[in-house]
Amino acid sequence: QVQFVESGGGLVQPGGSLRVSCTASQSIFSTYAVAWYRQAPGKQRELVATIFSGGDRNYAGSVKGRFTISRDNVKNTVYLQMNDLKPEDTAVYYCNRPLTPIAWGQGTQVTVSS
To answer: Which of 19, 25, 62, 79 could be disulfide-bonded to 3 (CB atoms 3.0-4.6 Å)?
Structure first.
């Protein structure tokens, strides 16, 4: 069964940039859409960005223009490039298949603070 491993989180100052990665245990990105989600303390998990098998992308309004989702099919990895980070972007970031979700991974913590 496919598994996702998220990595690349850390502490960054407001206005800074960070790139997080989601690596799959199988080659699936040409077949399935993959999305990044985030969950802040005390809040529900929310959808941040999606990349579809054909390459189309969608973004939540709160990150549009600041975040970019991309993928490398050879490396079985989906990336989320985050620019102009704000304190409200602080959360644990996860990836999953939005249409046929699997068990959630551990996520990667992103903290935006001065």
So the answer is: 25
User: pLDDT tens digits, residue range 22-43?
Assistant: 999 988 887 899 999 999 999 9
Q: Determine phi and psi for 89, rounding to 5 degrees.
A: -85, -5
H helices of the chain, where?
A: none
Tens digits of per-residue pLDDT, 60-73? 999 999 999 999 99
List CB contacts of 67: < 8 A, sequence separation 6 or more: 48, 49, 59, 80, 81, 82, 83
Cβ contact 22:4 at 8 Å: yes
